[in-house]
Amino acid sequence: MDTPFITNQEIARVLFQIGALLETMEGNPFRVRAYRRAALGVLFLPRPLVDYVASHQDVPVSGLGGRLRQRLYDLVNTGHIDTHAALLDEVGEPMATLLGIEGVGPKTAIRLISELGVGSLEDLRDAAYTGRIQELRGFGAKRQEELGRRAAERLAVAA
């Protein structure tokens, strides 16, 4: 099979991220809700979404419209959704890079950029290792450690 394997968690993460980006950009609240509901629906599927697509079965996620259903098929077959890429292009750097880290959503990325001046993965790693992240309201040592570790892992893969 030529289909790239993408887990239900990864699919849900992309869908949640699209919803969060749309919300941050003050997009249509019904569209935001549709992406979030689709993400939850995918998380609670009894089998991987890839199995449904590969066997040409209807995806058992209630309330899924035609366009969003097609986007799910695109994500399963190609590994990406054009809408997600377009939104990431629109928000630009360093936001797009920070959003690529698990545990960083749009609100967290905005805070890291505006309150700490984080502009890259190196900046995020350094802010975590020097203890600056936990100085932000709502961030503790554990979250700081996770963000630093994930940034370092992404940098190691890129090297």
Name the descriptors.
159 residues, DNA polymerase, domain 1, 9 helices, 0% strand
Summed up:
The protein is an all-alpha fold.
Blueprint (SSEs and pairs):
Blueprint: H1 8-24, H2 29-43, H3 49-54, H4 66-78, H5 82-91, H6 95-99, H7 106-116, H8 121-129, H9 141-158
Domain unit count: 2
What's the order of the H and E elements? Answer: HHHHHHHHH
Shape: elongated
Spans of at least 5 consecutive residues whose pLDDT stays below 50 are none
Describe this structure in words.
The chain has 159 residues and is mainly α. The chain folds into two domains: 8-89, DNA polymerase beta, N-terminal domain-like (DNA polymerase, domain 1, Orthogonal Bundle); 92-158, 5' to 3' exonuclease, C-terminal subdomain (DNA polymerase, domain 1), CATH 1.10.150. The chain contains nine helices and no strands. It has helices at residues 8-24, 29-43, 49-54, 66-78, 82-91, 95-99, 106-116, 121-129, 141-158. Helix 1 packs across helix 5 and helix 8 runs antiparallel to helix 9 (141-158).
